[in-house]
Amino acid sequence: MNDLPGRxxxxxxxxxxxxxxxxxxxxxxxGDAGAGHFAPKAKRVIYLFMHGGPSQLDLFDHKPELEKHxxxxxxxxxxxxxxxxxxxxGQAGLPVAASRFVxxxxxxxxxxxxxxxxxTARIIDELCVIRSMHTEAINHDPAxxxxxxxxxxPGRPSFGSWLSYGLxxxxxxxxxxxxxxxxxxxxxxxxxxxxRLWGSGFLPSNHQGVSxxxxxxxxxxxSNPPGIDRETRRDQLDVLGALNQGRFEERRDPETxxxxxxxxxxxxxxASVPDLIDFRGxxxxxxxxxxxxxxxPGSFAANCLLARRMAERGVRFIQLYHxxxxxxxxxxxxxxLQCGDVDQPAAALVRDLKQRGLLEDTLVIWGGEFGRxxxxxxxxxxxxxxxxxxxxxxxxxxxxxxxxxxxxxxxxDEFCYNITRDPVHVHDxxxxxxxxxGLDHERLTYRFQGRDYRLTDxxxxxxxxxxx
Length: 468
Prior knowledge:
single chain, 468 residues, alpha/beta, Alkaline Phosphatase, subunit A, 32% helix, 16% strand
């Protein structure tokens, strides 16, 4: 690096070496927390995504009347001609399978919660449980893509990218949008989670999610290679930034400014990420609260604890994917294992946020891409069965961020097959989340190829009944 003085001279004489990071951020709206359309109730989101589709009638939507229908054929009047997946369309019959789990009422609200979620039951009065979610998607990839991007086909920006675009980043040293993935305890093949689910689509690429890994470097290509110290890296980035800035002045391509800003963010993350993932300052009581796996990197419990630390540090959208909820078979055993992974950490996260004064302006969301059928997939046995995908009704819960606590919202029929009151569509949910963050879902748009796009496409309404 003998030519560094010459490079520094070049930077000073061109005026490009002074505050390249600041220049890049200025070109991208300064990277500051942006102003929404109206006063927000929430500043950030922690999205606990149960990938695969949790069974609503085994967890939150108690249907004791199903016992009298157990083993009988699902009535055609209930199914209503709904299309089935290829996994059950060829079955000789669709026998109703009542839940094998015990439900009880909990909290002041008296909400029914399954025995599989004892920790969640203890915080039920902090939650708004929406039992009337519905979607048109019938298979995993389009259903997850729909919930996360507002469209069943790939190519649209993800929710976190829309928030980064609309509100900017609160933190100078961490991205606005971070993603973590954990694998469930159920022994089954994991459905794929494609990086496009946290991609920026047609938005500028600085709004895409950053994936935090469990092994090796937490963020790929973040560490300096051998022989490169921090001062040398700073010099390299100054030179590279000057060249890119010159390119931007020539071509006016916004992606060039994005590249400068991303290099600068990566440089700051070299210092901020090691501090983020260092749990040594956490108390023994905290680890006990999040559960026995909270010290295990990459576990759902450890990721929940990381999510709280990110919330404290100003990360705007924190996405936790937990795999393994696709119970087409062995549901009684596998669902118990999955709930064992997430029940205590999710409840601890809500409590922890509340104790630290963060729940008030943090919106926590729990749920999957759809629910499960009331009928059994495959043979209905005394101690074993499976359930297929079901989009006509499923359950999610929300907490904090101006959402009404202790509420059971929406109802389904006695078969837990159709919604009978207060339906909430995917677009309605997304419109409501944006509203709590101070964004009008009809005004948060981006023009691409001659059309104004938005997260909620051309649909969606704010569900005012769940707002505090």
